[in-house]
Amino acid sequence: MSRIHLLSPQLANQIAAGEVVERPASVVKELLENSLDAGATKIDVDVEQGGIKLIRLRDDGGGIEKSDLALALSRHATSKIVQLEDLEAVASLGFRGEALASISSVARLTLTSRTEDQDAAWQVRAEGRDMEAVLEPAAHPRGTTVEVRDLFFNTPARRKFMKKEQTEFRHLEEVIKRMALSRFDVSFNLQHNGRRVQQLRPVDSEQARERRLASLLGGNFIEQAVHLDVSAEASGLRLWGWIGLPTYSRSQADQQYFFVNGRIIRDKVVTHAVRQAYSDVLFHGRHPAFVLYLELDPALVDVNVHPTKHEVRFRESRLVHDFIFRTLHRVIGDLRPKDAVPAGA
Ligand code: ADP
Ligand code: MG
């Protein structure tokens, strides 16, 4: 008797879900990325019980065609890339075609959508089991709503790893914060258990940006931060954002946001460059606060390193490192001497 068999689509998706769907916050991250990729300008997130019971995300983006709805839930189904070469300069946040398939394999998912040229909306539902989707008409303006109920209802082992409602909600809020920092032009609203928690309007002016920063990171940060915007013509690199004065150093690395082409990342090269730039002005064990945006030719950075895409690989990491270091070092060196003295020195 043959011992090798193909996994059912559901099981294959559940296994893949292990990599991208860790907790409610990871569901929200994937759904937000989809909305941004769809060109949304307004995203409303509604959650119950820290997202464990319900996550509902509504956007005003381009929507999904009726004929694509069921396919959107299948694994390896994406509208964002066609061939391998597309990956070399991918501009969208998603491209793996795994999120909706993974989420729907471990939760009860409803996807409702309407495109500009459809007169009605359509809805498709998936509940883990057979992955067979049934289409029904629905009422919805242009855009998409994804509803995810009872996360891990069919995977008790994963359910056990979820923390208390408040803890899950904190993680989820952090994800929204990062997205709101990455896209000032988009409005984000968050509601938890029927209570409005976050309401961020789209902003265009410098002042409005700083108001959004203040509401996300606290007024102290922006009062003790300097704005920078530096481009290197030869390499096409641009670094902009806000860095905290040495006097605003923290005991933990809890206010460090670094975006590469709009995607939040954690990266050793970046961390090292920033730390080195601050090394003359910060005491050992203190951490700088910053919100920084690096922009570069997408072809110079590989984002397909990990399913969650939190990591990247720079094609010329030395160049990137030195640019970040030099830029920040100069900005920090230009601070008035009063500012540059660490508190308590
Ligand atoms: P990926 O984002 O990697 O393409 P997903 O599983 O997250 O894979 O989504 C599958 C597809 O469903 C996307 O490529 C996109 O075409 C469509 N889609 C998902 N969410 C939305 C949305 N909010 N608005 C419009 N299209 C969406
Ligand atoms: Mg996606």
From TrEMBL:
GO terms classed as biological process: mismatch repair
GO molecular function, one term: ATP hydrolysis activity
Keyword DNA repair included in the entry's annotation: yes
GO CC terms, sorted: mismatch repair complex
Domain DNA mismatch repair protein S5, chain residue ranges per copy: 213-333
Record keywords, A-Z: DNA damage, DNA repair
Keyword Lyase in record: no
Source superkingdom: Bacteria
Family to which this protein belongs: Belongs to the DNA mismatch repair MutL/HexB family.
Protein purpose: This protein is involved in the repair of mismatches in DNA. It is required for dam-dependent methyl-directed DNA mismatch repair. May act as a 'molecular matchmaker', a protein that promotes the formation of a stable complex between two or more DNA-binding proteins in an ATP-dependent manner without itself being part of a final effector complex.
Protein name: DNA mismatch repair protein MutL
Source species of the chain: Marinobacterium mangrovicola
Lineage of origin: Bacteria, Pseudomonadati, Pseudomonadota, Gammaproteobacteria, Oceanospirillales
Part of the intact protein present: 1 to 345 of 645
